[in-house]
Amino acid sequence: METLETVTEQCVVALTWTLKDTLGETLDVLDDPVEFFVGGHDLLDRIDAALQGHVVGDTLDLHLEPEDAFGDYDENLVFLEARERFPKEIEEGMTFEGLPSGCHPDAPANVIYSVTDIYPEHVVLDGNHPLAGIALRLHLQVRAIREATEQEVGRGSAGTGFFQLAPTAPGNGTLH
């Protein structure tokens, strides 16, 4: 695989980062470089654009408003469902792709729902991305740049899905 000098569309970049909210609270730290496909589905559009033309060793500090990151919080993606529709061993933090049969008919089927609360008769499920509605500060460092393989170009991914934790809801351009 050929090493490249600068970040361009359809290359693979290895990054490390520190992700914080606007109050400075650390949300995630990536100390070991992870590879992302630039110009595909691995990174948010603002990050893709900001990386263009950078070289190994460069650092970037980005401020991402919710609309540039994981979208605004949508209260219409929170559902209260009957406890009996879920496994006995359900725990807060568990995720489900779509809701079980018999749940709210208007709930988008291709959304990842997180269990946020469990009551004796009900379960609260939230289809929002955990970082929805939060402005983020991202300190990135470019650790390596290489040519993408034909496979990576074909699927638009280096196989890393940090910024794609769940499918997008129909008619909604934000991540969940």
What does this structure look like?
There is one protein chain. The protein is mainly β. The chain has two domains: about 10-70 and about 130-155, Chitinase A, domain 3, CATH 3.10.50.40; about 75-125, Thrombin, subunit H. The chain is built from two helices and eight strands; from the N terminus they run E-E-H-E-E-E-E-E-E-H. The chain has helices spanning about 45-50, 150-155, and strands at about 10-20, 25-35, 60-65, 80, 95, 110-120, 120-125, 135-145. The strands form two sheets. A four-stranded antiparallel beta sheet has the order 2-1-8-3, with helices on one face. A four-stranded antiparallel beta sheet has the order 4-7-6-5, with no helix packed on it. A hairpin with a 4-residue loop joins strand 1 and strand 2. The longest helix is centred in the N-terminal third of the chain and has 7 residues, at about 45-50. Mean pLDDT is about 90; it is low at about 165-175.
Structural class: mainly beta
Sheet of most strands: 4 strands, antiparallel
Give the spatial strand order of the biggest sheet. 2-1-8-3
Given the C-alpha coordinates, what overall shape results?
elongated
The N- to C-terminal Cα distance equals 33 Å
Number of helices: 2
Please give the structural blueprint.
Elements: E1 11-21, E2 26-37, H1 45-51, E3 59-64, E4 78-82, E5 95-97, E6 112-118, E7 122-126, E8 136-147, H2 150-155
Antiparallel strand pairs: 1-2, 1-8, 3-8, 4-7, 5-6, 6-7
In short:
A hairpin with a 4-residue loop joins strand 1 and strand 2. The chain has 176 residues and is mainly β.
